[in-house]
Amino acid sequence: MTQSCNLTVIQINDTHGYLEPHPELVWSGSKASYPTLGGYARIASLLNSARRENPGNVLVLDNGDTFHGTYPAAVSRGEALIPLVNALKLDAMTAHWEFAWGPAHFRKVVDRLDHPMLAINCYDKATGDRAFPASVALECAGLRVGVIGIAATILDKSMPPHFSEGLRFTLGLDELPAEINRLKCAERVDLIVVLSHLGFPQDVKLAASVKGIDILVSGHTHNRLERPARIGNTLIIQSGCHGSFVGRLDLNVTDGRISDVQHQLISVSDAIEPDPVMQRLVDEVMSPHRAMLAEIVGNTPIGLHRDTILSASMDDVLLAAAAKAGETDIAFSNGWRYGAPVPPGPVTMNDLWNIIPSNPPISTVDLTGVEIQEMMEESLERTFSADPFGQMGGYLKRFRGLTIYGKLENPPGHRIEHIFTADAALAADHSYKAAFVTAQGVPQKFGRNRQDLPVKAINALQDYFRRQSTHPNEGLGRFIPV
């Protein structure tokens, strides 16, 4: 006898602590617009509506990068968000920036969550045991659904060391087949869902390498997939960032096989009425900070964003502030993806905290020309590796005071052809003083005379906007493909 049922899978990914509606960049041809999107109260309404439409048949998954990225998340080390995340009634989650305050703190957060935290690829170095469950089997829509979590593999490779203290992370590639087999045989699951924070390129390769994955819910790289990717028999979705979009799959499953698929990339716009219960929770978190965050610190004549891979206007401003504070011409920062854009016009304290929520000190270091080239070659490989599993960064490392000419298609270590400081070629043995923001800006293995300055990033940005009325045109760092 044929058995058929309807299952709804909803994805929330890379919200980065954005509890309230905020500007998001949307391209239309060559122009950027900044609609106000997102907000937990709107997301809660979407989930409530889906659950009313298909009662008992909705699976809600969060890819992580949830508890870090905004002022209330940072000052509470993610704890202020726990009641709100629990109110979403998630079915499972995996992680990345959740480790920002160290594994011990993250475990305390996990202990207060109402849903499982899954990571098949995270191991305790001392015992060799998994630090979190690999998977969970859930009853939904008359089906047994096996959900396997994969945390970000870069946590012990390119993130600050304290993120992964005592832990090691794999890709999960080698562990997946056995776990899929266990779920199918021992747990008698009908569908396998992989909840991943590896990134879209990595997940495409993963799906091509491992059989038996029905749905791969992908995060980390902030792709707005308007239709699922299909790799063999695996469907892959990813749904932007900052909670500005929510992904929804409506599946008809017949005799344990997906027979029909409908996908929506839902814009979390003002057309969605906020859920009043969640709005009260958001207000409780935000009210103590709203006056401070609303303070206007300056203006920007252009939109500031991080939506471009080789350079970004938001990081041009951050590096200009860092260079000013460090009294240098050269500056570096990590190629972060997160950070809601700032439309042309007033800039607030909230915008500054969104730009750099960790608020580290501005630091300086002495680097030789050889070290600068090696560091940038490493960043190019981590960004553009031909092997997706070798891509371990965000966007290209941001820099100021340099112009780099190179070929992205060249092999690792051979992409850069020329580097100039102003109009002079970078001298291999010369020492250059550089400012940087966070240890990811200039990794510990590079340079000498590292020094943290008595000024933090937010203060440097405040000072920059007090003094600057236009976007910096002098000294902008650019990688020029040739």
From TrEMBL:
One Pfam family matching this protein: 5_nucleotid_C
GO biological process: nucleotide catabolic process
GO-annotated cellular components: outer membrane-bounded periplasmic space
Gene3D superfamilies the record matches: 3.60.21.10, 5'-Nucleotidase, C-terminal domain (3.90.780.10)
Superkingdom of the source species: Bacteria
Keyword Transport: no
InterPro entries in alphabetical order: 5'-Nucleotdase_C, 5'-Nucleotdase_C_sf, 5_nucleotidase/apyrase, Metallo-depent_PP-like
Protein name, entry field: Bifunctional metallophosphatase/5'-nucleotidase
Organism of this sequence: Bradyrhizobium betae
